[in-house]
């Protein structure tokens, strides 16, 4: 029997610097097959070859990356949100009566999606370090499309539980994959705007979903129930788009196919200043322990979890909340588009405010406070003023604006592949746990006003704002301590820029806040 040796922390520290040596050996052979699976080494070789990069080249390469990556990520996020909230629209289309749902069963269907999400999160965390990101994301989109289409064959609660679980299981891959992709291709301030661009498609999905639901409500009844038609249509679209992602979505600036050799050099040169490397498939225990000892790990979890306790309720009970104001099903479907528009406007405005103030905490906490005000108004406005109650519900949807700041914090303030994976996994656990709890705050005994759920919503958004502010405050203090408060990061020749070191191991790391 052969004995195995567990790598020591010292071995890992030595291996962290091996990429630089490999890069020097590979310079001049950057298209060699020797780079397969070794993206950090290829990136360093490309960067070493990138001489005399001009501003025009930087802009041109950024534009090319945006033209391909942003539309693909945006459509994927739109489909993800539309597909996971399809149960909300199916509720208006009669799924409750057709499948004989009783009592809290509808609430549990909302929660079981996130049980699957929760179960899948550590599994996806493992594969996201080992696999090609774009291929992995595309395969999961295809799989959730198949599961979504299978909703149309369900006739009872048990069958719906199964498909909701697996839909959550496969959808859980997308957000962590896109957080990692955004960190690979963009500089810190660019990460805020690009994350906002693809995340805003949650709002566009609500607008589109309301329109689809209204169209199905006004059409003449056919042989197949309209909610079954909806699931078949959305499932087919997801399958087709998953194939598109596999074919065209890039995975790394060091291997991007639609750029020539010089442009790949520039793409890698651009992100050297992130001081985060690109990708390392080796699991490093020292980075895992550093992540566990980093207090921000738990603030990320709490912030995302509390925000999504509130989100889990309004995303699954949105149509019921609006209908409770006194509107019929068709009007409810149309009014369901208003929160989506509010979300889009809030995210775009928040991205502008972040760019103008060079801050993430200012727009993030502001939007959480607007959501708190909306929740309070929903409780306090009398029932006869249904238009004002609808306005209050709509402004609650300023809260998604803060999510891109949590995501971009992860992408630009946590360095080291293993450490970032640990943060990513725990943040997604917070997301799924919050969304799993959220629907249970809407108890049938509290209908139609659901006042306890609205009080919970207010408290959770306030807690999320406090977590975001705490992370930003820590970053500010650490920057002062490290004397790293610079208006823009140095893009000079730094041997550590593209190696797989953590933010704590980098002497000059600058934390955004």
From TrEMBL:
GO MF annotation, one: transmembrane transporter activity
Family, similarity comment: Belongs to the major facilitator superfamily. Allantoate permease family.
Record's subcellular location: Membrane
Coiled-coil portions: none
Domain Major facilitator superfamily (MFS) profile intervals: 69-513
Record-level GO cellular component terms: membrane
Keywords: Membrane, Transmembrane, Transmembrane helix, Transport
Transmembrane segments: 65-82, 106-128, 135-153, 165-186, 198-218, 230-249, 297-314, 334-353, 365-384, 390-409, 421-438, 458-478
InterPro entries: MFS (IPR011701), MFS_dom (IPR020846), MFS_trans_sf (IPR036259)
Membrane topology category: Multi-pass membrane protein
SUPFAM superfamilies: MFS general substrate transporter
Protein name per Swiss-Prot or TrEMBL: MFS general substrate transporter
